[in-house]
Amino acid sequence: MTIRPGQKSDVPEILKLIHELAHFEKEPEAVKTTEEDLLRDGFSSTPFFHTLILEEEGEVQGMALYFFNWSTWEGRPSLYLEDLYVKDSARGKGFGRSLLIKLAQIAVEKNCARFEWEVLDWNQKARDFYHQLGAEYMEGWLPYRVEGEKLIALSERS
Amino acid sequence: MTIRPGQKSDVPEILKLIHELAHFEKEPEAVKTTEEDLLRDGFSSTPFFHTLILEEEGEVQGMALYFFNWSTWEGRPSLYLEDLYVKDSARGKGFGRSLLIKLAQIAVEKNCARFEWEVLDWNQKARDFYHQLGAEYMEGWLPYRVEGEKLIALSERS
Questions:
Q1: Share of chain B above pLDDT 70, in %
Q2: Size of interface A-B (CB pairs under 8 A)
Q3: Which of B72, B80, B151 is facing A69, going by the closest CB pair?
Q4: Does the pLDDT of residue A158 top 90, yes or no?
Q5: Rounded to two decimals, what is the model's pTM?
Q6: CB-CB under 8 Å, A113 with B147
Q7: Per-residue model confidence as pLDDT tens digits over A21-80
Q8: Tens digit of each residue's pLDDT (9 = 90 or more) over A117-131
Q9: Do A82 and B71 touch, CB atoms closer than 8 A?
């Protein structure tokens, strides 16, 4: 098993895994992303995100997509994990754990104080797993969002 | 009232506002950030964050600190608001609202599908205000985090 940074030629496979994860998250229709979006925003000179690809015997079996936030309390960046996915057929081999450890290593190398992500409340298996790895649920902080037409409307207020 | 991008010379004032916000959030001792941290990570050629400064009659009255995330479902960046703060003495003038509208404009200009942030669950006044502006609480998604020594320990697992 090897973990390496994603490259342009991985984009079709990355998109496939994003679709599989959305299906698992019970939102199979939610993915609007195209290969062009991934190429434009992830593989330019100033990318919005980074990827890790996990391979076994030359076959892609999983991936992580992450970027850097910044904490005004710590004065240092945070590594934010947007997506972590291991193919159904490759579960139970510790691949998710290996990806999380690799991400923690990148976080430490990049002077991050934190490694963060969000999890669906019903995914108790994932939550138990994250607790085992030293993660804590940040109780008391609620995610808010304005999107789509409501975002346009807000931008046009005066 | 004017809103403009922050610059290096605003760093002392930005840090002061970060401290005031932490005090309001009932975590006055939580801020480890220094002026050097803000200069290094916010004002280099590839900054981790951006700031907006709100001034009235030449005096700084508020600020926002934000950065760009990326959504694997939308295939586009998101604007993430880390901190929004208006001085106690300048409340009730709509300055917070003006900063949020400006951020929504930046989000739209930068092709973002979403404008996101987190709020403390007990801050009902802020939550009501955000709902009025078209924001929704993303129920079901829980923030998780590994930090400090637990992050180092995770990075050293094999």
A1: 100
A2: 235
A3: B80
A4: no
A5: 0.94
A6: yes
A7: 999 889 999 999 999 999 999 999 999 999 999 999 999 999 999 999 999 999 999 999
A8: 999 999 999 999 999
A9: yes
pLDDT score, position B126: 93
- Judging by DSSP bridges, how do beta strands B50-56 and B76-86 pair with one another? unpaired
Instruction: Check if B126 contacts A (Cβ < 8 Å).
Output: no
Contact B145 A121 (CB under 8 A): no
The three-state secondary structure class of B142 is: strand
Are B10 and B53 spatial neighbours (Cβ–Cβ below 8 Å)?
yes
Cβ–Cβ of B144/A38 closer than 8 Å?
no
Q: Tell me, what's the pLDDT at B158?
A: 82
The predicted complex's ipTM stands at 0.91
pLDDT tens sequence across B42-56: 999 999 999 999 999
Radius of gyration, CA atoms only, chain A? 17
- Residue B20 CA to residue A49 CA, distance in Å, equals 32
Are residues B14 and B65 in contact, defined by beta-carbon separation less than 8 angstroms? Answer: yes
Residues 6+ apart with CB under 8 A from B29: none
* Cα–Cα distance measured from residue A120 to residue B141, given in angstroms and rounded to the nearest whole number: 5
Structure tokens at B16: 């002061």
Q: Quick count: other Cβ atoms within 10 Å of Cβ B61?
A: 19
**C-alpha span between A130 and B144 (Å, rounded):** 8
Chain A stretch 9-68, residues whose beta carbon is closer than 8 A to a beta carbon of chain B = 18, 21-22, 27, 30-34, 37-38, 41-42, 46, 48-49, 65, 67-68
Q: How many residues does chain A have?
A: 158
Tell me whether strands B136-137 and B141-147 are parallel, antiparallel or unpaired.
unpaired
- How many Å is the Cα radius of gyration of chain B? 17
